[in-house]
Amino acid sequence: MGVGEDVGEYVADAVRVVRASGLPNRTDAMFTSIEGDWDEVMDVVKRAVAAVEARAPRVSLVLKADIRPGVEDGLTSKVETVERHLAHGDGRPRTDE
């Protein structure tokens, strides 16, 4: 914030940090999701914020955590589950599952 309306290059700085971390991640139009151990993820978040902070006078961050021990590959499996339900076609909730 404080750098005008076009913030893409600043967001890219943060996403570079996330991608370099080696943790599973996904970036879409509104968010970058990261999956991993709490301490590892929070370290990446801290470094991503610092990367933006180095160039912008203000950083805005929205953080949402889904803490589910034992769950891995949630970035992919959650989307696959939704796609499987969409593939059933008629858009109505299934009652047989």
Please give the radius of gyration in angstroms.
17 Å
Contiguous runs where pLDDT drops below 50 for at least 5 residues? none
% residues in beta strands: 5-15%
What is the SS-derived class?
Answer: mainly alpha
Overall shape: globular
Under the CATH scheme, the architecture of the domain at 7-69 is 2-Layer Sandwich
Mean pLDDT: 86
Order of helices and strands: HEEHH
Sum this structure up briefly.
This is Thiamine-binding protein domain-containing protein. With 97 residues, the chain is mainly α.
Topology:
Layout lengths: L7 H13 L4 E3 L4 E3 L3 H16 L20 H13 L11
Antiparallel strand pairs: 1-2
Helix pairs in contact: 1-2
